[in-house]
Amino acid sequence: MEQIRAVVYGVVQGVGFRYHTCQMAQQLGVAGFVRNQPNGTVEIVAVGTREQLKALLQWANQGPAGARVTQVEAEPYGGSAQFDGFTIDR
């Protein structure tokens, strides 16, 4: 399993981005969380296979209807992540 941390930029708050990210991650079988950041971005921390994470990042580059994603920065996540499913961190 691989771990990533991604930051999504653009119009991504107030458009259901966290909810839809959670739904997509659960469909893909990815564990982790998604949360809004004070600077208007959305942070995703995810654990899964390379293929699962690639699919989640491809989705994040589009986002749900109403979102306007301008950039997604992803990097390996070095934390010792132990997640029970995928959640929205508030």
Automatic annotation (TrEMBL):
Keywords, sorted A to Z: Hydrolase
Keyword Cell cycle part of the UniProt annotation: no
One Pfam family here: Acylphosphatase
Record flagged with keyword Hydrolase: yes
Active-site residues annotated for this sequence: R18, N36
Catalytic function, reaction form: an acyl phosphate + H2O = a carboxylate + phosphate + H(+)
GO molecular function, one term: acylphosphatase activity
EC number: 3.6.1.7
Residue span, Acylphosphatase-like domain: 3-90
InterPro entries: Acylphosphatase, Acylphosphatase-like_dom, Acylphosphatase-like_dom_sf, Acylphosphatase_CS
Similarity-based family: Belongs to the acylphosphatase family.
Protein name listed in UniProt: Acylphosphatase
Organism: Shackletoniella antarctica
